[in-house]
Specification:
This protein is mainly α. About 75% of the residues lie in helices and about 0% in strands. It is built from 13 helices and no strands. The protein has helices at about 5-10, 15-20, 25-45, 45-50, 55-60, 65-70, 80-110, 115-120, 125-155, 165-190, 200-220, 235-240, 250-270.
C-alpha cells in the first residue's frame, strides 16, 4: 500500500493537483523564509570569527549555555562548525513546517467545511489521503531543496566553503528523513483526533518539546536515554561534521517508523467520522 508505485496509482490526480495549488502560496512563503534564515544566519559568521569581543563570546560561554544554544559539540569559529550551529535552527523550522503540513492536509477539510464536497467524489478515502500525502511530500522536497541550494550558495561565498559541501548535503538529507517523520506524525495526529482545531498547536508543541529534550540531553550524558523521544537526536551532527555521513541503521529505523506511522494514518483516516 505504501510503495511508490502503489501510491501513484492509488492517488486521485485531481485532488493531488488541488493540493499542490492550495499549498503553493504557503510553500513560497516558507521557501523565502528558509532562504532568508540561511542568508541572515551565515551573515553573522564573519562577525563572530573576525576576532575581538564578538569572537570571544562563544569562548566565554559556560558549557550549559553552549548546550542550550546548540553548539556545545561544534567549534563555531570554523565554517562547518558555524553552519552546524545554524543548522539546529534550520532543523526545528523545517520540522515545524513538516508537522503542520501533515496536520493540515487532513484538518483543513473540516476547518474549511469542504469535507462533504471531498467525500462526494467517486474516490476512496485511501486515494484521497494518498493524493494529499504525495502533494505534501513534494512540498517537503521543494523546501528542503531551497534550503540546500541557499546553504550551498551562501557558504560558497566564504573561503573554504566548497570543502564543506558534503557536510551540508548530508545534513539536509538527514533533515529530509526527519521531515518525512514529522509529516507522518502530524497527519496521524489529525487522523486520530475527532476535533482537529487544536491538533496544529499540539503537533507544533510536541516538536518544540522534542527540541528541548535534545537540548536537555546535551547537558549531561546521564539523560541520553531520553534521546529516543527526540528525532533531533536520531542523527549525530558531530559525526556528520567529521565526515562520517549517516548511520544506515538509524536511517532504516527512522524510515520504518515513518512507514508505520503512515500506515496508522491510513487506518485511522478510513475509520474516522468526518465533520461536514
Amino acid at each position: 500500500m505504501l510503495s511508490a508505485d502503489g501510491m501513484v496509482k492509488g492517488a486521485d490526480m485531481n485532488i493531488f493537483k488541488h493540493e499542490m495549488k492550495s499549498n503553493r502560496k504557503s510553500l513560497l512563503i516558507w521557501s523565502i523564509s528558509m532562504a532568508l534564515l540561511v542568508i541572515s544566519g551565515m551573515g553573522k559568521y564573519t562577525a563572530y570569527t573576525a576576532g575581538g569581543d564578538s569572537s570571544d563570546i562563544f569562548d566565554k560561554m559556560p558549557h550549559t549555555m553552549k548546550a542550550l544554544f546548540g553548539f556545545s559539540s561544534f567549534d563555531v569559529k570554523t565554517l562547518s562548525g558555524f553552519y552546524a550551529f545554524l543548522f539546529t535552527y534550520i532543523a526545528i523550522t523545517l520540522a515545524i513546517h513538516a508537522v503542520l503540513l501533515g496536520n493540515s492536509i487532513i484538518a483543513k477539510e473540516e476547518r474549511d467545511k469542504t469535507t462533504e464536497f471531498l467525500m462526494a467524489k467517486p474516490v476512496s478515502r485511501k486515494a484521497i489521503l494518498t493524493a494529499k500525502l504525495l502533494s505534501a511530500a513534494i512540498n517537503l522536497l521543494v523546501l528542503n531543496a531551497v534550503t540546500l541550494i541557499s546553504s550551498l550558495l551562501i557558504v560558497a561565498s566564504f573561503d573554504g566553503g566548497s570543502e564543506i559541501t558534503p557536510v551540508i548535503v548530508w545534513l539536509l538529507i538527514s533533515m529530509l528523513i526527519l521531515q518525512v517523520l514529522f509529516l507522518a506524525f502530524g497527519a496521524l495526529l489529525a487522523s486520530i483526533k475527532k476535533k482537529t482545531k487544536a491538533t496544529g498547536s499540539i503537533a507544533s508543541g510536541m516538536v518544540i518539546a522534542a527540541y528541548f529534550v535534545a537540548k536537555i540531553t546535551d547537558l549531561t550524558d546521564s539523560l541520553n536515554f531520553l534521546n529516543i523521544l527526540s528525532p533531533f537526536k536520531y542523527f549525530s551532527y558531530p559525526e556528520i561534521i567529521n565526515g562520517n555521513g549517516l548511520n544506515i541503521i538509524i536511517v532504516v529505523l527512522t524510515l520504518l517508523l515513518s512507514v508505520f506511522i503512515i500506515w496508522g494514518t491510513y487506518k485511522f483516516y478510513a475509520k474516522r467520522d468526518l465533520a461536514v
